[in-house]
Each structure stands twice: as structure tokens, then as C-alpha cells.
Amino acid sequence: MEIKLNKKILSRLNFGLLVIIVIGILAVLNFFSYQIFYRWDLTQNRDYSISSVSKKTMAELDDVVSIKVYFSKNLPNQYINIRQEVGDILDEYVNYSSGKARVEFIDPKDDKEIQRELYLSGIPELQFNVLEKDKYQIVKGYLGLAIQYGDKKEVIPVVQSTNNLEYQITLAIKKVTNKVNAKIGFLTFDGAIDLEGEMSEAYKKLSELYEISRIDLKKEKEVNKNINALIIAGPVEKFSENELRAIDKFLMQGGSLLFLVDGVKIEEGLKAQANEVGLNKILEGYGLKINNDLIADIYSGIASFNQGFVVFSTNYPLWPKIVKGGFDENNAAVAKLESLVLPWASSVEILSDKIDKENQVWNLAKTTKKASRQTGNFNLNPEEGLPASNSESQYNLAVAVFGKFKSVFDKSSTDKGRLIVIGDSDFIKDRFVRGVPDNMLFFQNLVDSLVLDEDLINIRSKGISERPIKEISEGLKALIRYANIFGLTALVIFLGLARYYLRRKKTASKK
């Protein structure tokens, strides 16, 4: 009896000791969890974790960055989660800043002094419609951020979602700490796209990050060496030899060039003709050529047309839509994009024999293998569907070449210049960007790749605005359709037969 009692007491002591050890381990783990910061983000694009660019930006801070979050507490329910998500993102910034980032949440409430400060900073007071006690009431509040470094301040006026918040925060920090001061030049000429008119949205976005200047080669003999990248958008008149020489010289000095050039001019009444501007004289020397054709594809954007007093919308094959698989996965500027619409685009031909073997070449955007092309007599009628073609093929619509180039004029070579050619300029105009937001993302990423390498591209490309259905065969379509119709019925019958068979077998075994 005594032995049994001792064993019982010993068992209880062992159990108690085990509990104490487990509690001790949990306490130690809890302590270290506050000392070591780590999160697992299982989303495809790591949407809830800051990128290596943001981590590096915070690690390189020389002084304290103050981040003030002006969120009212009386916000509608749909904004409560945003407050939590913003806090989670900013926690990561703090943890990678080595104590140089300080975050403060402030509720302006009825503090007139803070409200006045926010008004002067550009953070507006918002109005929300809230349903309370079966009545809609107007509630006022704030959803803004202010980022300050020394005497410099940048604001994010309204945070409606966290999809693009990391990009905005990191960009603001780079601006106040003077990490970005690149200069972009837009070539001006007769018929050029109006920066503040036709492409005001793109101009505004670039102005947030870069210093933009206009360059007129009719008045200036060369492109200023301080320009990091030169953009030539939508030319419709032929370039003079002096202008071509200036462009060529800029590339030979290690400059970056972005060509947005239409191979075909589209005029009123859907009339089209070849757009001969003379740029192929230098482009062919670099290994690229813009063809005077129009590309149509089975994947296309939706266009609206007037027919008398009726406006109708339809998929328009001459507005090729680039989807996943049409972007070069080896290039950070386009690897994470989901879609892009290039209205009335021309193909860009790669002349491999004229490209240095050590140069990097990317097919940034290409059609499906079922695309076709028009040359000569162009037919833009939207009612005729996909233009008839004797053959289907795949066409490059945007190509990038980074490396050394040989001058077309004096045969000198560059110290690693950068060249991107797109056979379309319409895609970045306001009327297209507003309907296809991914066009803006594409354009911004390309400019960044010319100036900042891959610095901010990976942040901006995190959020995916569209998930197009992938192309599948007719046989697979039929299989999916019949599986939806008969699949559940067949499954029920199978389970019923299986259960019947098992019951028969069980009954037979008892006998």
C-alpha cells in the first residue's frame, strides 16, 4: 500500500513538474517574441510584408523619421480594419529602422489647432455617411499620414486601403531624406503628346518622384547630361538629322531612352496611314525596328464607338490585351503585371545580328500566338471582328535592350545605355489610363527601370488589380462545363453505390 501511494505521489510530482517546465518554456518564448520580430506572409505577392527595398530604406536612415497617423476613432466600421492593417505595416517599418522610425496615432477630435495644422498640410477632413438607429448621419473624421524628417514633410492625404500603402510610405520617406532626385526629360516637337493635357495623369505620377523638364532639340543642340532618362512620346513628324544625332549622342553617353512610337497614325473617322518619323534610322542600328503595321489579337480591350446616335462597346481586336504569359518574367518591371491594353499597337522587331551578344534583351510585352497583323490597306471597322489573316503568329509590342550600343553616325559605343521601345503611345493617355489602371503601372515601372533599377518596382507591383481568365482549349472548356452539370450527380451516385457495396460486404461477412 505504501509503495502504491509513493508511486501515486511521484506521478503527481512528475506531472506538476512537467506543467511548470511547459509554463517556463512558454514564458521564455513569449519574452523572446517581443525581442525578435518575424511574420509569415502566405499571400502570393507578400502583400502584408514590406519588401527588401523598404527594409533597406529604413536601415539606412541617418536620423529619426516621424510618422504621424491621423485616424479618427469614430470612423465607420469598414475603416476599423484599415486602422489595424496600417498599424501592422508601420510596425514592420519601426522594427527595421533600428529605432529611427517613430510612429504616433493621433485622433484630432475637436482639437482646432491640430485640425488647422492638418488643413495646411493637405490632409482633409472627410465626411462619412453612417447608419445609426435606422437613420443616416454624417460623421466627420480623418484618414491621413504625415511623414517628417528634419524640416521636410510629406503627407498621404487619405488612406482608403493598404493595397499601395507601402509604396506611398517608402516613396515619401525617400523624398524627405533626399534619396530620389532623378531627372526625366520629355522631348517636345510638333504634334507631341500634351503632358498636362492628354497625359496629365502620368505626368502627375512621375512628378511625385522625378524632376521633369521639356527638351526642344530644335533649339538645343544636345540633351543635357543631367537628364537621367529621355522619353520620346507620340511623334507624328519626321525628325531631322540633327535631332537624331542628339538622341544618338545621349545614348552613347550612357543615357536611357524610352520610345513610345506609333507605327501607324490613327486619324478621325478611323482612318489610318503609316507613321514615317525617321526614328528607325537610329533604332535599326541599335537592333530594333518599329514596323508600320497594326496588331490584332484574340485577347483585346473593350472600346466604345458611336453609330449614329447610339454608343456601343465591344471587344476590339486592334486593342491587343497583354495578359499573364505575355510579360517577360525575367524583367522586374513587368514580371508581376497581370494585364495591359495597347490601342492600335505596332510590332517591334528585334534585329538580333545588330545587338551586342553581351547585351540584355527582354520581350517586355508580347501577344498570344494567335495574333495577326495588318499592313498597307488598314481596316479599323470594329464590326468586322478579328481581321482576316493567312497566318497567326506572336508579336513583340514592347522590347528593352540594356548594354552597349554602337552609334549610327560615328560608330562610337556607349558605356552601357538603356533602351526601351514600345510600338504605341496611346496607352498612356488619360482616356486609356482611367479605363485600364494597369497601363499606368506598366509605364511607371518602365521609367523606374531606366532610372532607379528595380528600386521601387517590386513595391508598386505588389497589388494586382486584375485576374484575367487564362486561355484554355475548347476540349477543356467542354470538360469543365459537363463536370459542372453532371459532376455532383455522378459523385452522389458513386458514394451511394460505394456505401451499398460496403453494407453488402459487411452483411455477407456476418453470415
What does this structure look like?
The protein has four domains: about 1-35; about 50-175, Glutaredoxin (3-Layer(aba) Sandwich); about 185-460, Rossmann fold; about 475-500. The chain has about 500 residues and is of the alpha/beta class. It contains twelve helices and 22 strands. Helix content is about 35%, strand content about 25%. A seven-stranded mixed sheet has the order 8-7-9-10-22-21-19, sandwiched between helices. It is globular and about 105 Å long. The longest helix has about 35 residues, at about 475-510. The model has no long low-confidence stretch (mean pLDDT about 85).
CATH level 3 topology of the largest domain: Rossmann fold
In which order are the strands of the major sheet placed?
A: 8-7-9-10-22-21-19
Q: Segments where pLDDT lies below 50 for 5+ residues?
A: none
Structural class: alpha/beta
Q: What share of residues are in beta strands?
A: 15-25%
* CA-based shape: globular
Q: Multimeric state of these chains?
A: single chain
User: What's the CATH H-level superfamily name of the largest domain?
Assistant: Class I glutamine amidotransferase (GATase) domain
Ends apart, CA distance between termini: 50 Å
